[in-house]
Amino acid sequence: MEVVVEERIVKDIKANLNIAGEVKRSRRILITLEKEDLLKVSEWIKGRGFEHLSAISVVDWLEAGIYEITYHVWSQEDKILITLKTSINRQKAVIDSVISVWDRSAGIHERELHELFGVNFEGNPDLVPLFLEDWEGPPPFRKDFNWREYTGEKYYDQENEREHVYYE
Amino acid sequence: MTRKMRGNMFTTSESIEPAIDTNYDLYFGPAHPGSGNFGVKLKVDGEVITSARADPGYLHRGFEKLMEYRIPLQNAVLSDRLCVLEPLNWNLVHAEAVDELMGVEPPERAKYIRVIMAELSRIQSHMIWYGVFCIGTGFESGFKIAFGYRDYILDIFELITGGRVYPAGYICPGGVRRDLPEGAEERILETLKKAEEMIRFEEMENPTLLSRSKGVGVLKSEDAIRLGATGPVIRASGIAMDVRRDDPYEVYDKLDFEVPVRTEGDAYARYLIGIEEMKQSVKIVRQAIDKLPAGEVIVPELRKPKLNTKIPEGEVYVRNEIARGEAAIHMVSNGSKYPYRVKVRGPDFLHMIPLLEHLLEGAQIADVPAIYWSLNICPADMDR
Questions:
Q1: Mutate to test the interface with B, among A5, A50, A54 (most CBs of B within 10 A)
Q2: SS3 of B208, please?
Q3: In this structure, what are the phi and psi dihedrals at residue B229, rounded to the nearest 5 degrees?
Q4: DSSP letter, residue B323
Q5: A4-135 — its CATH code?
Q6: Domains of chain B
Q7: B352 touches chain A (CB under 8 A)
Q8: In this complex, is the C-beta atom of B343 within 8 Å of any C-beta atom belonging to chain A?
């Protein structure tokens, strides 16, 4: 497969922002960056035609103590998907919001991830709960959240014979 | 009108302004027959909506978390439930993500069967879209006819997968679960004629639909990209974005089809795009059946799936074009038999929250169902 355009974009990013990228396969580029560089790179690739933010995802690496945040951005012009990957400390999960770059399509993904992982996106004014109503527990998608224990305590009655099965 | 009537009835002097507050809150859904398990809180002034706030979460089942505790074989079945209206397309996204992680290349015949099933699923999903759009705008016959014709396609699903609505992981990692049964190709071709009948019915000019949807809920192309629109919604706003053509998967690069685009961006344009896409899907299925090669339908090492098959370490982001728009799965594996993290990107997550809120602002109350259903929405893949 030809990866001419992909390599040119990686070279452009290296020349303009001094950040290394990697061509994974045709139509896929991976850029690993520091969280301080996120806004700078986002703005640059948006200007380069990467206008459609497909998704933002968080991976919780419990042992390493980090959240890996990935931004998947599509360019309709070049027909290429760039994945921006950065990591933050999961105890102090704070990162700049990209709402200034990709507007509300970024805002809604950040709102979801704030609820499910407890990541704070600085600069996003709308981080109110989305799916979970009256949720008092910790962010439920964290790897250290023991949902079995939580639901047992919260929703089942240990005295009730019929619900014993949840405690075995 | 209310203000004036009240003024005439209860006041004697013209100069006294009646103390009526025309601002109120209106809750559209979640028990509204047309809304699905989803609500929108509307702030209304008289007949005009001043602001809208989506209220999702009624169908939040935590699929992404559930998948972290299951092997791909179980997740294939689980992926059906991501969207009730097009389970086969979600099967396909999940299967492709696992294929790519495991480095498995499905046999050529399996790829064609996958495309046939995905496109049939798209046709029946677009029929539902038309049906609920009709019932939302007060044209009930359209709803009944669309759901009637959809059943012909469900018959095909029953024949091939064993389930009418949920295929139970028919499209699985490595290929498809079973080969097409005898005579399935002919049955599919016959059903396509039925689908074409339905398309002809949809194409008939319909004053009810026309008057309710023309010029309603206009989405400008610059807003479409800003709010994350994909699929038929963005194509009705003048941007030809289609994953099948731009980022081809399976055998879409070997098939000839067009990507319909319109520039009006209103509810009527979205409805016309739906019709055009059904035609293209019929065309794709015909070609795929024509080219269907012989051979295996699943890679031999996955034919009898083992329970402790390890997923190699890695990370993939797989995008597909489903009936509603761009669907994607971000799957991360740390080398165990369960995926470490699965992120599901449903098109309706963006269509139903930022986009719907944007379109409803400034609209009339009476236009809410037309706008709502013209987006081809499904709360299941928004909440996941």
A1: A54
A2: helix
A3: -70, 150
A4: T
A5: 3.30.460.80
A6: 62-383 (1.10.645.10)
A7: no
A8: yes
Q: Does the CB of B55 have a partner CB in chain A at under 8 Å? A: no
Q: Which residues of B touch A113 (CB under 8 A)?
A: none
Kindly provide the b/e burial profile for residues B108-145, where b requires at least 16 CB atoms within 10 angstroms of the residue's own CB.
bbbbbbbbbbbbbbbbbbbbbbbbbbbbbbebeebbeb
Q: Answer for the pair A139, A117: CB distance below 8 angstroms, yes or no.
A: yes
Alpha-carbon distance B153 to nearest alpha carbon in chain A (angstroms): 31
Q: Is B60 on the interface with A (CB under 8 A)?
A: yes
Q: Print burial letters for B176-195: b (CB count within 10 Å at least 16), e (below 16).
A: bbebbeeebeebbeebbebb
Task: Work out whether strand B171-172 and strand A80-89 pair parallel, antiparallel, or are unpaired.
Answer: unpaired
Question: Over the stretch A2-52, which tens digit does the pLDDT of each residue have?
Answer: 788 888 888 888 888 888 888 888 888 899 888 888 888 888 888 888 989
CB contact under 8 A, B62 and A51: no
Considering only CB atoms, A79 lies closest to which of B56, B246, B345, namely B246
* pLDDT tens-digit series, residues A57-101: 999 998 888 999 999 999 988 889 999 999 999 888 889 899 999
